[in-house]
Amino acid sequence: MKLVDSIIEFQHEIRDIRRDIHAHPELRFEEHRTSDLVAGQLARWGIPVLRGLGGTGVVGTIRAGSSSRSLGLRADMDALPLQEHNEFEHRSRHPGKMHACGHDGHTAMLLGAARHLAQQQDFDGTVHLIFQPAEEGGAGAQRMIDDGLFEKAPCDAVFGVHNWPGMKLGQFALRPGPVMASSNEFTITVSGKGGHAAMPDNCTDPVLVATHVVQALQSIITRNKKPIDTAVISVTQIHAGDANNVIPDTAVISGTVRTFTSEALDLIEDRMRTIVEGLPPAFGAAGTLRFERKYPPTINHERETAFAREVLEELVGQANVLDFEPTMGSEDFAFMLQARPGCYLMAGNGSGDHRSAGHGLGPCMLHNPSYDFNDDLLPIGSSFWVRLVERYLAR
């Protein structure tokens, strides 16, 4: 592994920053302390700072040489509404809030790269360090774009990195095309006629109708969608009634839809609407659908992915650069990839052996109360950012 020497020298300082952020998690659009910390560190290293994009977003800009080329590097800052089970020193100080997805590490990795790039400036062009709020369900990337991110910080390309538990430390994974799915939510309301459960003939039972609707939804996946198009419809909640001897007036079904293409999503939404509006009347009931498109699919661009792969192979060796298996999880970096060419890749976080004494009993997986970012990944991730900049903006 060919890490940057100066980053190795100050990695303990970056580790302390990461652990401080972990101990003080903030939820989406509430990242005020984290934003202050990031902006303060950037200013300390002489990096001009732009604040307020997306509410709590921070953008640091480093210019060197005379080239008009520009590059964006993105890290997310928000935590999750989760109670941490770990008991080590840097555990969350805020009940019900936890950095369980590694955004504390992503922020620290980019800060490590920022310090080196500001000091050495061994490149020709402009680097925008994008510290984004509200990745966890808040579409903070789109909020920053709406607030003029790419007008105020023009980028020829953008790159993002996420830690990946279960993949060995020192390994990376990426691929062109779809890598994460779109995220969409639906709520179906079935309206019937309530009454005494002992006299169902006087009622139109929405619970019975809801069960038929749930079964019918899966026919979209098995009989309407092309078999080669990956998609998921998951019903995750059904709510109806308050008493065992009363048939309710309504039943509410909700869940998520995930796809890799807009075409598959259009098909699914259209078929869902047909089922919801057409099936309940067969039972004397009525149905309505509310369908919300949250995050689009995360689709890597061919050229930028190939470029990132070359940088990674030089950094960690070809054997440690893997092909990423797409996941049905979602990521709001997708919005940035819709606006600019770029690549989103994964960095191995290990199996959890890095956790110090006092960690929870659960696995070290994302969105898990026993998770903790692997501090040994910090110099690796920071070194990747530096080498990416030096190669993309070569003199």
From TrEMBL:
Its EC number is 3.5.1.32. GO terms for biological process: diaminopimelate biosynthetic process. Residues 185-278 form the Peptidase M20 dimerisation domain. This is Hippurate hydrolase. It is an enzyme of class 3 (hydrolase). The lineage of its organism: Bacteria, Pseudomonadati, Pseudomonadota, Betaproteobacteria, Burkholderiales. Mn(2+) binds at residues 101, 103, 136, 162, 367. Transmembrane segments: none annotated. InterPro entries: Amidohydrolase, Bact_exopeptidase_dim_dom, Peptidase_M20, Peptidase_M20_dimer. NCBIfam families: amidohydrolases. It comes from the Bacteria.
